[in-house]
Automatic annotation (TrEMBL):
GO terms for molecular function: alpha-methylacyl-CoA racemase activity. This is Alpha-methylacyl-CoA racemase. Belongs to the CoA-transferase III family. GO terms for biological process: bile acid metabolic process. InterPro entries: CoA-transferase_III, CoA-Trfase_fam_III, CoA-Trfase_III_dom3_sf, CoA-Trfase_III_dom_1_sf. Residues 319-347 are annotated as: Disordered. Pfam families: CoA_transf_3 (PF02515). PANTHER family: ALPHA-METHYLACYL-COA RACEMASE (PTHR48228:SF5), SUCCINYL-COA--D-CITRAMALATE COA-TRANSFERASE (PTHR48228). It comes from Aceria tosichella. One of its GO terms (cellular component) is mitochondrion.
Amino acid sequence: MALKGLKVIEIAGLAPAPFCGMIFSDFGANVIRIERPGQPPLDSLIRGKRTAAIDLKHDSGKGIFRKLCTNADILIEPFRPGVMERLGLGPDHLMSLNKGLIYARLSGFGQTGPYTKKAGHDINYLALSGVLSLFCSNSKPVPPINMLADFAGGGMTCALGILISLIERSRSGLGQVVDVSMVEGVRYVSTYLWHTQKPDVPARNFIWPKQGQKEANLLDGGAHFYTVYETKDKRWISVGAIEPQFYSALLEVLQLDEKEYPQFDLNRWPEFKTRLAEVFAKRTLDEWTRLFRDADACVEPIIEYHEAEKVAESLSRPYFNTDGTPKPAPLLSRTPGEPNMRDPQQNEHTAEILLEHGFTQDQIKQWSGEQVIDCQIESKL
């Protein structure tokens, strides 16, 4: 696979950092996940990784960790700023031992500034990014599920930063710190929205004709041709008929006269939304899906997550793994991601990993007795 041979150390944390590590594992990297002794995994994104339970607060545990990082390409750490420095495992120290180490630091607010010590979650990062204000229902901000800040602005942005750093390292031979702030990551993902808010950008009046008003613009649910509607069977259908040809196709299927529903008569958008809602409420989701199947109108059913695998099969795309989870994306033509679907047991590989890095069986037994590490000694030694 594409990332075969890369050595990644991932310190266990909440969802964004494990997701970043999973991306590397899915595409072939050797990912070692460092967990606290005696603490069960808090997340489910551990497939294909090897686990080692090491106490990073113990001097011997720190020594073990330093040795692992000396032989690694990438370190992914999910703590608040300053934690690794207090442990004596900050980037200045570890990168002096391994000048090619990519030291990725994934946090809510970044490594500098007054917010570095604050706790937060996806909803807070969205709030401070300015993006949450754009998700409204009845003029009240409604947070999306935690995919945007945690996974797009966090885990995915972290993986991108690491890969960019690896390419640069191939020229310079040097690693660097990747400082990932989920607030900044979600802003970057939303660059298009920022760009279209500028007064000198032609798209502004198209995207934000009533800037400052909620649910009155093209992409915030204000447009009758870019929103969702409830169907007769209490399901939902999505409409994204922005371009004129798609709008014409939409009205044709709905049997509405385009002359009576001019697309960009902004003052009548609420009226048009009400009328389209009445029309969509007359048929079931399956009926509308059949009617729009051959119409190039940008109208698709909103499926439940448990229906996604069946829909993927109908598209003849290898979207799902054998356990029903999504396959790695993007799909590479020569070296696609092929995840190892097995989840490791807690501290399963501690002894195996330490032996690979030159530690002896006697050292491993001693550290296990001192509770510096957890390992399945009987099966590994």
